[in-house]
Amino acid sequence: MKRRHFIKSAAFGAASSALFYPLTGNRQSLNYASNSNVSNASDSIRKVRMRDVEIQLVDRQGNPLRNHSVEIVLKKHAFLFGDCNPPMDVLFRQGDAAAEKLDVYRKVFAKVLNAVNSTCYWTERPRNNLAKTEAYQGAYKLDGFADTVDWGNANGLTVKGHPLFWTVPKAVPEWLSKYEYSTQLKFLEVRLRSLVARFKGKVKLWDAVNEMLWEPSLKNLPKRDWPYRETLDNMAEYISFVLRICREEDPDAQFLINDYGLEKNHNEKAQLAANDNDTNAAQAGGVRSKDGTIFTAALQRKRYLELVKRLRELGFPPAAIGMQGHSGAVTAAQQIELYDEMAQARLPLHITEFWAHPKDFGNDFSKLPPNEQDLHIAEYVKQFLTNAFAHPAIESFFFWGFMGMATTWQDNNSPAYEEKPVLQTVMDLIHKEWHTHEILNTDDNGKIRFRGFYGDYSLRYGLPESDKKYLGIPFSVGEYASMPFRFETMI
């Protein structure tokens, strides 16, 4: 992430908080974005996601290639747009019976997105049929994770791994508890080193530590009573251990820390149902820890910033701050307030697990016809994704269940599916509105100029007397690249 963008981000909220409005009431009463609000977002996106590009083309003798037609195509955004892989992991484990469905599923996925979050839980019991890498001691299961990693790399997607370490009880193998803490740390170190080393160069990002603001450290796991207010000292101790081990194995990968409940005060019952697999475990009151602390979004943001500061002082800052986006429907003001505040850490911000479920929008929403609900959700996704893309501190946006929001598949292993409005909405944003595709002619100096999004490109041209542009020159546009680029052609 570009450092000057962080300097600008503190002042971003006032201009952008009015970009979009949350879903309320029925569809007829919605007032999403006036022309001026859309203009604000577009102006910000143009400033923080694009730059002026100048390219000079020469022939093989070094002479300017004058008045020659070229095509400029953005192949992949520098900004990451991704989703998680649990459905494709399940299809992989079903083998030949689901092979065709998996192939179609992946083609739809890769048509829209440029990144995939591949899951590698130590275990994830017993609620979900998710990827478990060592639920039983020494019984490693990495084939599903490796398959997604290899597929992502082969198809030009940036691969992220999730999570390396998560101290919620369901994600720590039961067999680990029979050992004393020092031995537990040794097993954790083996897991970290083995995964990161095996997938070095293939997995570019990792959620190194997950949901530390709500859960105990490993040594305090037996005392866990959610929400658990772990001390900064204990959090910094084990997280710095994890980050140190990971970076020793792969200095070039990005290792994030990741958490939820930051946009607005969190729904306790939903989280207890997800993390404890017990819908009766929730208290009747607010989200209150055993020591009486009431966990608000404001408190968790403050603790997150303090934790990052502590990790930096120890010499082990995360590469980026992960923010999940599981808090339900939020206003644009809540969204931008979060980004502005967290950007004070002077680290890139990643949206790691965004979802939009019908249950997030209230009882009146549930009474709407399904097709109306789908349209509402598509508009909300557009609102949220646009606000994130327009903010200078955000570096990536990963959904948690985009394919479920965007498509409906038959329950059996048939590859047949139906599109939902979210699919075309996101496709239009990434591949039309936020896309660079130009047909240009070089000037007398062999130069072309355009304003393009940051990312990987192809410059395509043809030989003299041919209108077929079948020769390509790959290049990348970044903020600090020196201009003009100078490319020698085959002419």
Question: What report would you give on this structure?
Answer:
There is one protein chain. The chain is α/β, with parallel strands linked by helices and 491 residues long. The protein has a domain at 79-421: Alpha-Beta Barrel (TIM Barrel), CATH 3.20.20.80. It is built from 15 helices and 18 strands. Helix 6 links the parallel strand 4 (115-119) and strand 5. The longest helix has 21 residues, at 370-390. It is globular.
CATH class membership of the domain at 79-421: Alpha Beta
Strand segment count: 18
Estimate the strand proportion. 15-25%
Q: N-to-C terminal Cα separation, in Å?
A: 38 Å
Categorize the overall geometry: globular
Low-confidence region ranges: 1-36, 279-285
Strands side by side in the biggest sheet: 3-4-5-7-8-9-10-11
Helix/strand class: alpha/beta
Cα gyration radius (Å): 24 Å
Largest sheet: 8 strands, parallel, barrel
The appropriate CATH architecture of the domain at 79-421 is Alpha-Beta Barrel
Stated plainly, the CATH topology of the domain at 79-421 is called TIM Barrel
For the record, what is the CATH homologous superfamily label of the domain at 79-421?
Glycosidases
On the 0 to 100 scale, the average pLDDT is: 89
- Number of DSSP helical runs: 15
Helix percent reads 25-40%
Topology readout:
Blueprint: H1 3-9, H2 12-16, H3 35-49, E1 50-58, E2 69-77, E3 80-84, H4 86-94, H5 99-112, E4 115-119, H6 143-154, E5 158-162, E6 165-166, H7 181-198, E7 205-210, H8 232-249, E8 254-259, H9 268-276, H10 297-314, E9 320-323, H11 332-342, E10 349-354, H12 363-366, H13 370-390, E11 394-399, H14 402-406, E12 407-409, E13 417-419, H15 421-433, E14 437-441, E15 447-453, E16 455-461, E17 471-477, E18 485-488
Parallel strand pairs: 1-18, 3-4, 3-11, 4-5, 5-7, 6-7, 7-8, 8-9, 9-10, 10-11
Antiparallel strand pairs: 1-15, 2-14, 2-16, 12-13, 16-17
Helix pairs in contact: 3-13, 4-5, 4-6, 7-8, 8-10, 11-13, 13-15
